[in-house]
């Protein structure tokens, strides 16, 4: 009788162990995915597709202005889930991303701006500012695209036309907006200029000639996107896009 009980106990232990192994294997082979999407598109409407299927937001498969939704699904190990953004009017693909078992943490929060001639993967919040003040922060969206520089950021010095320094930005990078600097508002019409240098130096970040970007000074908050462009074979930097206009 004792032998029978011992055998039964052994069988139960083996069975439980096998079930535990199977359960653990199943758990390891799958992961729940949650993607929080916050975007903005103007003037074009965009579509977001997951695995080729449209993402419906407020009963619509395409959307403009503020775009917010959360995707929840389960991902198998070895499985690839493409997340893509399309221009609704033209059907052209704007951007695509591959979500897989190993990189899901990179897509927990997904932010974008789709504006004329530029697509940005960036999170942006408009800072508050007191009356009578002007504030600036910068993003260098395509740093190195035409200049070929390997720098991840540049230093920016914002000046009045007469050379008086208004603010210094030690790190203007490609992925996030720089620190927010504030000064007293002084003119509705006078331009301001941003000079760009290698970090920690007074050397132009590329080439040997001074790099100066004329910026339109707007009363209040300015969130300027810098872009390298090529004009007549020469690399220039423009600062014509203000994200604050869309927030």
TrEMBL record:
PROSITE patterns, per database record: PROKAR_LIPOPROTEIN
Record's keyword annotation contains Signal: yes
Signal peptide: 1-19
Keywords annotated in UniProt: Signal
The protein, known as: DUF4493 domain-containing protein
Source species of the chain: Flavobacterium hydrophilum
């Amino acid at each position: 009788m004792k032998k029978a009980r011992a055998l039964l106990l052994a069988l139960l232990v083996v069975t439980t162990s096998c079930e535990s192994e199977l359960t653990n294997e199943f758990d390891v082979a799958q992961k729940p995915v949650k993607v929080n999407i916050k975007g903005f598109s103007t003037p074009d409407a965009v579509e977001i597709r997951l695995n080729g299927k449209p993402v419906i937001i407020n009963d619509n498969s395409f959307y403009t202005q503020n775009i917010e939704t959360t995707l929840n699904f389960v991902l198998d190990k070895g499985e690839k889930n493409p997340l893509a953004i399309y221009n609704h009017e033209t059907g052209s693909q704007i951007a695509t991303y591959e979500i897989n078992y190993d990189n899901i943490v990179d897509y927990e929060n997904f932010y974008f701006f789709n504006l004329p001639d530029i697509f940005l993967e960036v999170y942006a919040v408009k800072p508050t500012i007191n009356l009578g003040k002007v504030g600036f922060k910068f993003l260098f969206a395509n740093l190195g695209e035409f200049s070929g520089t390997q720098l991840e950021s540049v230093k920016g010095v914002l000046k009045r036309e007469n050379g008086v320094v208004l603010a210094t930005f030690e790190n203007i990078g490609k992925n996030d907006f720089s620190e927010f600097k504030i000064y007293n508002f002084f003119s509705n019409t006078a331009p301001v200029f941003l000079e760009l240098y290698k970090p920690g130096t007074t050397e132009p970040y590329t080439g040997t000639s001074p790099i100066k970007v004329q910026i339109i000074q707007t009363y209040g908050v300015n969130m300027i996107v810098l872009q390298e462009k090529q004009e007549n074979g020469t690399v220039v930097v423009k600062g014509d896009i203000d994200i604050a206009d869309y927030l």
